[in-house]
Specification:
elongated; alpha+beta; binds 2-acetamido-2-deoxy-beta-D-glucopyranose; single chain; 7-stranded mixed β-sheet
């Protein structure tokens, strides 16, 4: 009898777990998402199906840049879309995660990119969803699974190429891609794009001119462009100091981190983690120059 009682107690939470919204209410660091789901009426939708819900913590909402918070919270249509983006139908647990797999979001036409990264500090693996790290995993509810994540996920606004083309400060990068006839490539390749601003290209142009170096040759331009693209999808949560292969014939870039700033070679990441349908884009403040141009710039 005593043995049976122990077994019964152990089983109670599994058998009598609450719904997704009930489980969410049991956590004390997810009050904002809970209130937003309730306020938009999406709480009833969540509990009317079988879903996996990715719940940004309260700290994640607090960390949203003011402008993004205003846009999302100030417009019911956008708010519903962003909230809906945080769910997928059916079961997804950390054990189901594979690097670069995509989950079909409940938000029509949008996918959530899963990445599995290695924590360089202790060798453990962790999961991100569009760059948001799972901080509490696999909370089982009667109608699905709940994971707490450390960022609010924003639905990607298009491919890497689309993000570059839509940006007002990347006209020179776009021109370079267009000139190389690589639009389709940047729409479909999977990876990480470091996107130098127009100001960065101007600085490089002046430096080259001062040294009397011309890079008006298609092969060199292509090499410089491809040097900005990593073979892996590296969100900042999964990034680490070290070298990464690029699409420029395996030439590597060096990532270093000083305090909270991230450098790619000599370039500073000024805006990180812009999700694209085919990877991630980080805006950098100077152009990455592979050899032999890098040395030519110094000694030429
Ligand atoms: C709720 O917050 C308290 C401290 O504020 C913490 O000790 C406790 O572990 C939290 N509970 C959950 C379920 O996270
Ligand atoms: C959800 O919103 C309704 C009003 O629409 C309110 O009556 C209810 O108390 C709210 N529930 C929670 C858990 O906040
Ligand atoms: C809310 O956003 C949608 C989609 O961007 C837009 O069509 C609509 O005009 C916006 N509504 C308001 C009140 O700004
Ligand atoms: C990093 O932070 C420490 C402590 O805040 C500071 O002393 C140091 O100068 C910083 N390093 C750089 C390169 O900014």
């Amino acid at each position: 009898m005593k043995f049976l009682a122990v077994v019964m107690v152990a089983l109670v939470p599994l058998v009598f777990g609450g719904s997704l919204m009930e489980e969410l209410a049991l956590l004390n660091d997810t009050t904002i998402i809970r209130d937003l789901l309730n306020a938009t009426g999406l709480d009833a939708v969540v509990d009317s199906g079988y879903y996996t819900l990715f719940a940004p913590s309260d700290a994640a909402f607090a960390a949203l840049p003011d402008e993004a918070a205003k846009t999302i919270l100030g417009n019911a249509t956008i708010l519903s879309a962003v909230l809906t983006f945080h769910a997928t139908q059916g079961i997804f647990r950390s054990m189901d995660a594979a690097n670069n797999m995509k989950l079909k979001s409940v938000l029509a036409g949008s996918d959530i990119r899963v990445n599995v990264y290695n924590d360089v500090a202790d060798g453990s693996l962790f999961v991100t969803l569009n760059g948001a790290k799972v901080t509490k995993a696999n909370i089982q509810a009667t109608n699905g699974y709940l994971h707490v994540i450390d960022r609010v996920m924003l639905p990607p606004m298009g491919s890497m190429y689309d993000l570059v083309a839509a940006s007002e400060v990347h006209t020179l990068l776009k021109a370079l891609i267009d000139e190389q006839k690589l639009e389709d490539f940047f729409r479909t390749v999977t990876g990480t794009l470091f996107a130098p601003t127009d100001a960065a290209f101007q600085v490089l142009g002046e430096a080259l001119a001062a040294k009397g170096i011309t890079v008006k040759n298609s092969v060199a331009e292509r090499e410089i462009l491809m040097y900005h693209l990593l073979e892996q999808v590296v969100y900042s949560a999964g990034g680490h100091a070290g070298t990464y292969n690029t699409f420029d014939q395996g030439n590597q870039v060096t990532v270093s981190m000083v305090n909270s700033t991230v450098m790619i070679n000599q370039a500073l990441v000024v805006i990180g983690d812009l999700s694209a349908t085919n990877g991630v884009l980080h805006v950098i403040d100077s152009v990455l120059v592979p050899e032999p141009w890098a040395t030519a710039l110094i000694v030429g």
